[in-house]
């Protein structure tokens, strides 16, 4: 029986480096349609067990889609994971060739541990993600301009106000596109999610875009994926506080706002928050616990396709 083939690909803006099992040399190709097609022709006969790429701000997206379309098993991972693995194996230098080889080795390790690649987003999901990302960028720009306006010289205020008007107009357009997209493709699930007091259209659209696993994982898996599962900090006689770490920060941001609203207007979250405060928990810890509970509730709603009900949410 032949040895399984693993492939690591280090992707840059204009090119990518490919390292495959059993090959001492790496292959360098252009990060364009022709390069993607050539790589698929090379890899399909090899039938690799796993192809591993790092997320590189979107430069890897079209290549990953091309590989998946060719029927190849491809996974896109967080660059921090790959870098930590490189350090563990003593690879402190960093070049395209070394990075590709590190990813190849990491692919073999992940496959041995039963790693299942996250499904690549389809066209509708990519469109929704693009709109949600653009909305977040516009909001950040608008906040920055408002902060500048407060301290600006009178001579500069007219320019800042003009930019703010332009950003506000773009934000209005993007919000309209988001509403139309959600109405066309995710209306049922969005309606279920917004049945929870505290969860509005922005939170729902972010969850739909950034957390497609919602409703498909159990409570421990979904909270760990988002980064709301408390991590132990115990070693020897040391017993440290539990902290949340990693996960999807964009999802946590909208859950923070939703939980904050929920502690005032959602009867279940309000009672849960008050109970934690009476028990002596700091307000921030109590609010994070509410985020954790809210995510579990939303996951259960998405899984069961049932709207909010106090008696069910109270035991989630």
Textual characterization of the structure:
- The chain is an alpha/beta fold.
- The protein has 13 helices and seven strands.
- The protein has a five-stranded mixed beta sheet.
- The termini are far apart.
Summed up, the helix count is 13
What's the shape? globular
Largest sheet: 5 strands, mixed
The count of strands amounts to 7
Structural class: alpha/beta
Question: Can you give keywords for this protein?
Answer:
alpha/beta; 316 residues
Short note summarizing the structure:
This protein has 13 helices and 7 strands. The N and C termini lie far apart (49 Å). The protein is α/β, with parallel strands linked by helices.
Write the layout of secondary structure elements.
Layout: E1 6-11, E2 15-20, E3 27-30, H1 33-43, E4 50-54, H2 61-69, E5 74-77, H3 79-88, H4 96-112, H5 123-151, H6 154-185, H7 187-193, H8 201-210, H9 219-226, E6 234-235, E7 238-239, H10 249-265, H11 267-278, H12 283-304, H13 310-313
Parallel strand pairs: 1-4, 4-5
Antiparallel strand pairs: 1-2, 2-3, 6-7
Helix pairs in contact: 1-2, 5-6, 5-8, 8-10, 10-11, 10-12, 11-12
């Amino acid at each position: 029986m032949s040895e399984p083939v693993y492939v690591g690909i280090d992707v840059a803006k204009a090119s990518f480096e490919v390292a495959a099992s059993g090959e001492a040399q790496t292959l360098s190709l252009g990060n364009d349609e022709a390069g993607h097609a050539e790589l698929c022709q090379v890899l399909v006969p090899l039938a690799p067990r796993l192809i591993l790429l790092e997320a590189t701000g979107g430069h890897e997206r079209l290549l990953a889609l091309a590989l998946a379309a060719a029927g190849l098993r491809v996974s896109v991972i967080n660059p921090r994971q790959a870098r930590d693995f490189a350090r563990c194996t003593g690879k402190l230098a960093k070049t395209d060739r070394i990075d590709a080889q590190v990813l190849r080795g990491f692919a073999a390790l992940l496959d041995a541990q039963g790693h299942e690649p996250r499904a690549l987003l389809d066209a509708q999901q990519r469109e929704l993600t693009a709109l949600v990302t653009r909305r977040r960028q516009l909001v950040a720009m608008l906040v920055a301009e408002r902060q500048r306006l407060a301290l600006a010289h009178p001579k500069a205020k007219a320019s800042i106000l003009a930019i703010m008007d332009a950003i506000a107009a773009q934000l209005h357009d993007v919000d309209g596109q988001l509403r139309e997209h959600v109405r066309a493709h995710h209306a049922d699930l969005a309606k279920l999610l917004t049945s929870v007091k505290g969860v509005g259209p922005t939170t729902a659209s972010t969850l739909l875009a950034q957390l497609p696993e919602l409703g498909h994982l159990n409570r421990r898996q979904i909270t760990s994926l988002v980064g709301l599962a408390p991590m132990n900090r115990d070693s020897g006689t040391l017993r440290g506080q539990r902290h949340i770490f990693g996960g999807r920060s964009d999802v946590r941001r909208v859950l923070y706002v939703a939980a904050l609203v929920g502690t005032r207007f959602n009867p279940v979250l309000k009672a849960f928050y008050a109970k934690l405060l009476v028990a002596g928990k700091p307000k921030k810890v109590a609010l994070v616990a509410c985020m954790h509970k809210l995510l579990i509730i939303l996951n259960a709603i998405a899984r069961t396709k049932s709207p909010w009900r106090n008696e069910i949410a109270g035991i989630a």
